[in-house]
Amino acid sequence: MTQGTSAATTALDSATRPATRVRLLFSLTGRIDPDRAVGRLTDRFDFGRFDAHLRSGDAMLPVPVLAEHIDPTQLGLPGGDHGLRLSGAGLLVITTPRADATLIVDCDFADDTPTAALAPWLAATCFRRDALTLGGRPLLEAVGERLALARPLAFGQNVHQLVLPGGRLLTELRTAAARGESALAAPLNELIYRGRHRGTAAPAHLHLGDATLIAHGRGVSVHAGWAPPAENALTLVAAGLLSALAVLQRTRIRSFEMMRLNQQASTRSPREARELISELSAGVNELQLDLAFGVEAYIDSLLFPEMLTEGFQTSLAEALGIRGSLENSARMTERLTSVIDARSAGHDAALADDKEHRDGVVSGLLAVATLLALPPTLLLAFFGANASDVDDGRSVLDLAAYRWAYAAAWLPFLLLVGVGWLLLRRRRGAR
Question: Which spans in 194-321 are helix H?
Answer without folding.
Answer: 228-264, 270-289, 307-320
